[in-house]
Each structure stands twice: as C-alpha cells, then as structure tokens.
Amino acid sequence: MRPEKLYYSIREVSEETGVKPHVLRYWETQFSMLRPQKGSGGNRRYRPRDLEMVRTIQDLLHAKGFTIAGARKLLKVQTRGRSVDLPDGLPAVGQGGPKEPQEVLAEMRRELEEIRRLLRGALPL
Questions:
Q1: Which of 66, 69, 84, 117 measures 20 to 30 Å from 53, CA to CA?
Q2: Count of domains observed in the chain
Q3: What's the 3-state SS for 64-125?
Q4: 63: domain CATH number?
C-alpha cells in the first residue's frame, strides 16, 4: 500500500494482496492472530499488523505449501515470542512434475521431520 494508514478496508487489503474478501473472512475464523477491528457498522478495519499477518499467511499457504492447520501451528509458535526460520529448501505443494504417491509421502515425511526439528529448537526444554 502506498503511505501507511491506521486502517485499511477489506477491499484495500484484498486489492493489495490479491486475496479475495471471502478468503480473508475465512482466514479470520482459522487464524486467531488475524483479528481486524470492526467499526460501528460492522466493517472490518485492518491495521498494518493485520495486513502483515495476511501477507504471512498467504506466503505460508501459497508459496511454502503449508496446510491451514500447519500454518496455524507455526504462527502460534511465532506469536508466542519464539521465531522459527523456515529453510529455503522446503518445496511448496504442487511444485515440480507429477509424482508417485510413495514419493509424495516420503517428501512429506522429510518436511515434517524438518519442521519438528525446527520447532524443537524453538520450544523451551
């Protein structure tokens, strides 16, 4: 967005991120950390931090290939004051050519083990 504002409408956030308004409303139900304020008329008012959260969710779901549940878990760890850096090598879902089911499962297992390793380092013992 051009100059930073105090609040953005759902239309402005949608235009800026390319995420449709109905998807933004759905994400609000799935991600507790995405809570835009509502005006007296019930219109959503996204703060700059809400806009940043939309971008983060969008990146996790679309670029990094996380499921909603996986992205939600990762964001909960991060919003508790612990930062988890994702390795650049994690492939997004759907990248590359068609794969055999066994190959997909093996890749998913490797990714989950890497995420588990990252989370172990982020959580106190």
A1: 117
A2: 1
A3: CCCCHHHHHHHHHHHHCCCCCCCCCCCCCCCCCCCCCHHHHHHHHHHHHHHHHHHHHHHCCC
A4: 1.10.1660.10
Residue 14 has φ and ψ, to the nearest 5°, of: -60, -45
Check if the beta carbon of residue 54 is closer than 8 Å to that of residue 48. Answer: no
Distance CA 60, CA 121 (A): 20
Residue 71 lies in a domain: yes
CA separation for the pair 92, 78 (Å, rounded): 20
Has residue 107 been placed in a domain? yes
Residue 3 within any structural domain of the chain: no
Q: Look up the domain containing 28 and give its range.
A: 10-122
Residue type, position 13, single letter: V
**What spatial distance separates the first Cα and last Cα of the chain, rounded to whole Å?**
41
At 38-57, the pLDDT tens digits run 988 889 999 999 999 999 99
